[in-house]
């Protein structure tokens, strides 16, 4: 199997950095708890934030490379024209859900900014955490659209490994 070229996409890097941060925060917390019987106060808040970043950035990467979870049985047994209809319907359903999430997430982030809400753990402004929801929802929509264009053109991503 030939080596894959490295991914230099912002969503891939964001997911990698978020996972690394979760690992380092958790490891540091375990070491400090073992050594001092106390733990860092910020670890839960930052870990949850990094986990949300990791989830959405990873979903964007998966959407770009056609690796999201779905049932492919029907896709594989349809004629080409019907497959393209299914591709567009899948894309449309995703855009509706993520577009709604981006709309309400941006409204929520704006309200958090206007109300000057603070996080309960560390007292940071809540909008810093919430603003990533609409940004990454839009990133997933962009990656889904790129994937749809590739699928409609018949281009297969060499990274995709289908079990079926």
From TrEMBL:
<feature type="transmembrane region" description="Helical">
    <location>
        <begin position="12"/>
        <end position="34"/>
    </location>
</feature>
<dbReference type="GO" id="GO:0015740">
    <property type="term" value="P:C4-dicarboxylate transport"/>
</dbReference>
<dbReference type="GO" id="GO:0005886">
    <property type="term" value="C:plasma membrane"/>
</dbReference>
<dbReference type="InterPro" id="IPR007387">
    <property type="entry name" value="TRAP_DctQ"/>
</dbReference>
<dbReference type="InterPro" id="IPR055348">
    <property type="entry name" value="DctQ"/>
</dbReference>
<dbReference type="GO" id="GO:0022857">
    <property type="term" value="F:transmembrane transporter activity"/>
</dbReference>
<keyword id="KW-1133">Transmembrane helix</keyword>
<dbReference type="Pfam" id="PF04290">
    <property type="entry name" value="DctQ"/>
</dbReference>
<feature type="transmembrane region" description="Helical">
    <location>
        <begin position="85"/>
        <end position="106"/>
    </location>
</feature>
<keyword id="KW-0997">Cell inner membrane</keyword>
<keyword id="KW-0813">Transport</keyword>
<comment type="function">
    <text>Part of the tripartite ATP-independent periplasmic (TRAP) transport system.</text>
</comment>
<feature type="transmembrane region" description="Helical">
    <location>
        <begin position="126"/>
        <end position="145"/>
    </location>
</feature>
<feature type="domain" description="Tripartite ATP-independent periplasmic transporters DctQ component">
    <location>
        <begin position="22"/>
        <end position="153"/>
    </location>
</feature>
<protein>
    <recommendedName>
        <fullName>TRAP transporter small permease protein</fullName>
    </recommendedName>
</protein>
<keyword id="KW-0472">Membrane</keyword>
<comment type="similarity">
    <text>Belongs to the TRAP transporter small permease family.</text>
</comment>
<feature type="transmembrane region" description="Helical">
    <location>
        <begin position="46"/>
        <end position="64"/>
    </location>
</feature>
<keyword id="KW-0812">Transmembrane</keyword>
<comment type="subunit">
    <text>The complex comprises the extracytoplasmic solute receptor protein and the two transmembrane proteins.</text>
</comment>
<keyword id="KW-1003">Cell membrane</keyword>
């Amino acid at each position: 199997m030939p080596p894959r070229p490295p991914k230099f996409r912002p969503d891939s890097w964001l997911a990698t950095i978020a996972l690394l941060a979760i690992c380092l925060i958790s490891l540091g917390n375990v070491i400090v708890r073992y050594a001092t019987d106390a733990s860092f106060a910020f670890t839960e808040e930052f870990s949850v934030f990094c986990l949300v970043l990791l989830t959405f950035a990873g979903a964007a990467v998966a959407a770009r490379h056609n690796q999201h979870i779905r049932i492919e049985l029907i896709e594989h047994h349809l004629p080409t024209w019907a497959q393209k209809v299914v591709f567009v319907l899948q894309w449309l359903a995703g855009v509706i859900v993520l577009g709604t999430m981006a709309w309400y997430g941006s409204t929520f982030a704006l309200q958090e900014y206007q109300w000057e809400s603070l996080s309960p753990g560390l007292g940071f402004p809540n909008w810093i955490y919430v603003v990533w929801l609409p940004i990454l929802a839009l990133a997933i929509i962009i990656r889904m659209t790129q994937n749809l264009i590739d699928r409609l053109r018949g281009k297969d991503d060499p990274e995709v490994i289908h079990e079926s």
